[in-house]
Write a structure and sequence with these properties.
The protein has a single domain, classed as 3-Layer(aba) Sandwich (Glutaredoxin), CATH 3.40.30.10. The protein is 53% helix and 13% strand. The chain contains 10 helices and 5 strands.
Length: 194
Amino acid sequence: MGGAALVLTGTDLAHAAVDLDTALAPRIVGSPDAPIHIAEYFSMSCGHCANFHLNTYPKLKAEWIDTGKIRFEYRDFPLRGPAIYAHALARAVPADAYENMLDILLKQQQTWAGADDPVSALARIARIAGIGNDAFVEIIQNRPFLEGIVAIAKEGYETWEINSTPSFVINDKDVIRGDQGYDTFVSTLNGLST
């Protein structure tokens, strides 16, 4: 995934308003015809989620998603206060820049999640990505937007008993819990699909 300069190429979000339908639309990667659908519930402030995305997901993407075997969906499940703002920030960028913003936020997770003032740390990341201060404040103060993110998490909790991250719902049937590493994840996935 690319760096901050690639996130918003050709897009000016310095003063952009958030369109709720667009911002809360599912974030899906892979072929819509893939036989396996994985919905990952994750928190931007979860170290295990960051580890999955930075170490396991790239191989999963190359070997399963890009080859048409898996359709992968990101579902928000913020665990701590600042995480909801990070989820909102990632969803506020255009859908085609979402994974890049996700990558930046997870690579810099310790910088903002561990900061004395995580909101200011997120505002700095937003500025680097081309989101001005006024737009950032609008994002994190947009109550319907934040409630929409919480609704995604609530659905996971109520439907799949998601209570930890990362958790992966496979084909609306099975749940894999935790960051298991690529080999264990694939072994578990193969066990479910047989």
